[in-house]
Amino acid sequence: MVTRGPNPELKPEITTANEIGIDLGLFKNRVKTSFTYFTTENSDQIVRGFRLSYATRFVLNTLNVGTFKTKGWEANIDVDIVRNNDFTWNFGINGSQGTSEVVSLPENVTEYYNAYTWTSGNIRNGIMQGESISTITGRAYERNDNGDILISPTTGLPITASEWSIIGDREPKLRFGMSTSFKYKNFRLSSLFAGRLGATVVNGTKRDMMYRGNSWESVDLRESGPQIFNGVIQDGNENSANPTQNTIAVDYSMYGSSIFSGGDEDWLEKDVNYLRMQELRFSYRLDEELLNKSKLFSQVNLYFVANDLFTWTNYSGIDAVGNSVSAAAGDAIGEGIDIWSIPNPRSYSVGISLTLN
């Protein structure tokens, strides 16, 4: 069965980029710093896997999806805090921040979404015109004019919208990294950290475990007795001065082994921060006098490396930088959607690096 259709009207993608920056070296290059501001515009961006109407006899196509703009900055500072003949202590920090906008989408397209990221309820990596290119779309709760969640008068459960809307943005407020190194004669100890501030993460793993009754939270809810959802009854008075507050009790035990797993909004964890030690390296370089005698190697280094030793985060799930898809899914990006993601394991290695004369 052929699922991907042809597109004879495909146009080339055009990217226009502008960048301005500054590099400085101060105090005999003991302090090095740089700052860059950039803007890009992608017009007629080519996207694979765009879903078509089944009436076309195809499911997917490659289309010019629209025009996107991005802008942001990157900064770095690197300082030799101590530097003499025998000992050097260096510290560096970098940061970046970016914003984006979907300028245009194809005619009659209100949302473009990546089907590979539709892995938790109705949450998916979707974009809409006038919004960011890193937004998350889903079916939000219905609310009254005051912002209160509407409750069904028959079931006592919150009512979800029939249409998809933007419920979050996966782009963190700040991406940053840090590095430090200590060098004493032929010994060197260095570490590398990476982090993010103010990210939004979809905890799809917790949602799935809740629905299947595999988490302690689901056990507690099933054994806690009837619960009343906070909201107002959709009885025609929801937008009046005195809406009817919900008093309908819902017994989780009626769901059997699973429980009511909430709406898409319930599984967004916002303002997530994390800091990960990506690498710790200890090395020793053999003396040049010893190498000169051998006349075979110009440099020999012995090293021990540990990767992903620690992660500090306020995220309650498995991996704060979880990605629901991989490069095998046609370069699809599912960053920020943690659905049974496996974080990088701790790893240790020892080795020797040889440089021939």
Please give a handful of descriptors for the protein shown.
eleven-stranded mixed beta sheet, 7% helix, 19 strands, 357 residues, mainly beta, single chain, four-stranded antiparallel beta sheet
What does this structure look like?
There is one protein chain. This protein is mostly beta strands. The protein has a domain at 110-356. 7% of the residues lie in helices and 48% in strands. It has helices at 204-212, 216-223, 288-294; strands at 14-26, 31-51, 60-83, 87-104, 112-114, 124-127, 135-138, 150-151, 165-169, 174-184, 187-203, 227-228, 232-233, 249-250, 268-285, 297-307, 311-313, 337-338, 347-356. Strand 1 (14-26) and strand 2 (31-51) form a beta hairpin. Mean pLDDT is 86; it is low at 328-332.
The class by helix and strand makeup works out as: mainly beta
- Overall pLDDT, averaged? 86
* Biggest sheet record: 11 strands, mixed
Overall geometry: globular
The percentage helix is under 10%
Q: How many helices does DSSP assign?
A: 3
Provide the fold topology:
Blueprint: E1 14-26, E2 31-51, E3 60-83, E4 87-104, E5 112-114, E6 124-127, E7 135-138, E8 150-151, E9 165-169, E10 174-184, E11 187-203, H1 204-212, H2 216-223, E12 227-228, E13 232-233, E14 249-250, E15 268-285, H3 288-294, E16 297-307, E17 311-313, E18 337-338, E19 347-356
Parallel strand pairs: 8-13, 11-18
Antiparallel strand pairs: 1-2, 2-3, 3-4, 4-10, 5-6, 6-7, 7-9, 10-11, 11-15, 12-14, 15-16, 15-17, 16-19
